[in-house]
Amino acid sequence: RTFCVFPTSPSMAAASSPSPLLLARTLRVVVGSENPAKMEAVKKAVNAVRASMEVEGDIEVVGFKAASGVSDQPFGEEETQKGAENRAAHTRESCAQKGDIFVGLEGGVKSTGRGLEGFAWMCVVDKEGREGFGRTGSFILPPAVAKLVEGGMELGHADDVVFNQIDSKRKNGAVGLLTRGTLSRSDFYHQAVIMALIPWAHPALYPLTSASESEE
């Protein structure tokens, strides 16, 4: 058999080079929420990405109560994604001196033929205007919970009513309650945050747009 070995082109090498931000000895991350589950998810995700690159160093994760600019209980993909984007942008605007990257997380629901689905969007931004998005998987809410949410109650409060909990959204949330702890709220968000970090893992493949550059 004859095997052909093709040399790696400079463009291919550049495409595999991660952003210097991820390689920094100390990376400062500001999360647009003070919710412990969300902060833990971001910390685990950033640590996992840096570990895959064999980066030695520390990450500092702090929370900030960011405004979502959407309803307290977002409905639909668009509103939920916009909430995550707004939280990330508000965090960057308010905490620019405290962080290197800024993260917004927003949980939402949407009506489907199977019932009311729960899911969440993540948005990561940096000071240059680079932006990344990731989405969790979806799960069907129980009819008892869905009825309360459709009646105007936030999902977290509806969970407390149905499952007889107190402030469950700051713990394992709906997904933790429904999976009996098999999947924590932090783990539910974890992979989606990793997806939102892809533009920093391969910045050459995700060039800054003119719109992002004009923000500077």
TrEMBL record:
GO molecular function: ITPase activity; metal ion binding; nucleotide binding
Span list, region Disordered: 71-91
Keyword Metal-binding attributed: yes
Catalytic reaction(s) noted: XTP + H2O = XDP + phosphate + H(+); ITP + H2O = IDP + phosphate + H(+)
Residues annotated as domain Non-canonical purine NTP phosphatase/PRRC1: 32-200
GO biological process, one term: thiamine metabolic process
Biased composition annotated in UniProt, kind: Basic and acidic residues: 79-91
InterPro entries named in the record: ITPase-like_fam, Non_canon_purine_NTPase, NTPase/PRRC1, YjjX_NTPase
SUPFAM superfamilies: ITPase-like
Keywords for the protein's UniProt record, in alphabetical order: Hydrolase, Magnesium, Manganese, Metal-binding, Nucleotide metabolism, Nucleotide-binding
EC number: 3.6.1.73
Cofactor(s) essential for the protein: Mg(2+); Mn(2+)
Family annotation (PANTHER family): NON-CANONICAL PURINE NTP PHOSPHATASE_PRRC1 DOMAIN-CONTAINING PROTEIN, PTHR34699
Protein name: inosine/xanthosine triphosphatase
Provenance organism: Palpitomonas bilix
